[in-house]
């Protein structure tokens, strides 16, 4: 069967869910475009992550994450095996036994690579590479990960917490993705760890937003990929600018979307509310980092309440 191969972070659509989902690959070790290749083994609740509610119930619809019951992937690449499992394609579908409808893949997460452009000069490639902190593609790949409303919790958010050491052993209780367990700091920690920074060089209380204020090395201006600590106990990454405001990519934000309790998305920040810009101590910051891209986004600003809901 023809189709585009699917990788970690692909976008999912269920006709009964109020929002799109993400495919989180956990089985194959083989990579494409520097991330894991999706296979028919990625069919559990931890793999098909939806933050919305299921519309099948007319009254008090439950969170999708609490009722989703994936079955078996269909329309896979029958002739392509990845770590002994069948690769998923853009046309692959998996039925949810709860809703009785197929879940489809609307975006494979692959990045288009032009084939008709002239060769890029070696020095231009070096500039592009040094201006792209390795944790930023990882953070962007998490966009859309969202809190689950109700008693259930998004396993991806719990994974952020666990990576940062914010767990039941520390707190003496179950950890949630709810208001009592803000996860912006844990998201930053997880992204940096995933980019290859050793844990002994990360903040040992990285789950706390303000712990990043003194971590690594500080810079006086916002640079691309810098960890930005905001004065309403929030932290994220500088992703660009919108006029005179910063565009911040982070977790546990709303960005003006009042239908969510918190997700990985863009938010707008006033530079006057910034307490610190930080980079890893051994990361080389160049002038190119300070040439922030203008981002066309409808995101709005957050505050303490919206980033701790």
Can you count the helices? 6
As residue ranges, the low-confidence spans are 120-128
Order of helices and strands: EEEEEHEEEEEHHHHHEEEEEE
From the alpha carbons, calculate the radius of gyration and give it in angstroms.
20 Å
Provide an overview of this structure.
This protein is of the alpha+beta class and 309 residues long. The chain is 14% helix and 25% strand. The protein has six helices and 16 strands. Helix 3 (135-141) packs across helix 6 (184-194) and helix 4 (155-163) crosses helix 6 (184-194).
List the helices and strands and how they pair.
Elements: E1 10-13, E2 21-23, E3 31-32, E4 35-36, E5 48-50, H1 64-67, E6 70-74, E7 77-82, E8 85-87, E9 93-96, E10 101-107, H2 122-130, H3 135-141, H4 155-163, H5 168-171, H6 184-194, E11 217-219, E12 227-230, E13 234-242, E14 245-253, E15 263-269, E16 274-279
Antiparallel strand pairs: 1-2, 1-10, 2-5, 3-4, 6-9, 7-8, 9-10, 11-16, 12-13, 12-16, 13-14, 14-15
Helix pairs in contact: 3-6, 4-6
Descriptive key words:
309 residues; globular; endopeptidase fold (from Nostoc punctiforme); alpha+beta; six-stranded antiparallel beta sheet; 2 domains
Could you write a compact summary of the structure shown?
With 309 residues, the protein is α+β, with helices and mostly antiparallel strands. It contains six helices and 16 strands.
């Amino acid at each position: 069967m023809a189709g585009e191969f699917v990788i970690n972070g692909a976008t999912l659509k269920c006709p009964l869910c109020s929002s799109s989902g993400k495919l989180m690959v956990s089985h194959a070790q083989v990579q494409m475009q520097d991330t894991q290749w999706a296979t028919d083994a990625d069919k559990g609740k931890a793999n098909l992550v939806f933050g919305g509610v299921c519309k099948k119930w007319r009254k008090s619809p439950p969170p999708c994450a609490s009722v989703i019951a994936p079955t078996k992937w269909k329309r896979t690449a029958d002739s392509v095996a990845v770590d002994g499992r069948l690769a998923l394609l853009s046309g692959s579908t998996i039925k949810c036994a709860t809703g009785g409808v197929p879940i489809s893949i609307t975006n494979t997460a692959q990045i288009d690579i032009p084939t008709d452009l002239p060769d890029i000069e070696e020095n231009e490639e070096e500039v592009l590479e040094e201006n792209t902190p390795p944790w930023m593609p990882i953070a962007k790949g998490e966009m859309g990960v969202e809190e689950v409303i109700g008693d259930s919790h998004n396993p991806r958010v719990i994974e952020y917490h666990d990576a940062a050491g914010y767990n039941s052993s520390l707190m003496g209780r179950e950890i949630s993705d709810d208001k009592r367990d803000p996860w912006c700091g844990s998201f930053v920690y997880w992204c940096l760890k995933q980019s290859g920074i050793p844990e002994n060089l990360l903040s040992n209380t990285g789950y706390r937003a303000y712990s990043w204020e003194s971590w690594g090395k500080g810079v006086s201006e916002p640079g691309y990929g810098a960890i930005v600590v905001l004065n309403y106990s929030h932290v994220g990454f500088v992703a660009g600018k919108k006029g005179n405001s910063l565009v911040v990519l982070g977790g546990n934000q709303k960005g003006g979307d009042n239908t969510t309790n918190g997700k990985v998305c863009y938010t707008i920040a006033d530079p006057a509310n910034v307490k610190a810009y930080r980079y890893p101590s051994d990361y080389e910051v160049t002038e190119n980092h300070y040439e922030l891209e203008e981002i066309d986004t409808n995101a709005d600003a957050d505050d303490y309440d919206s980033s701790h809901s």
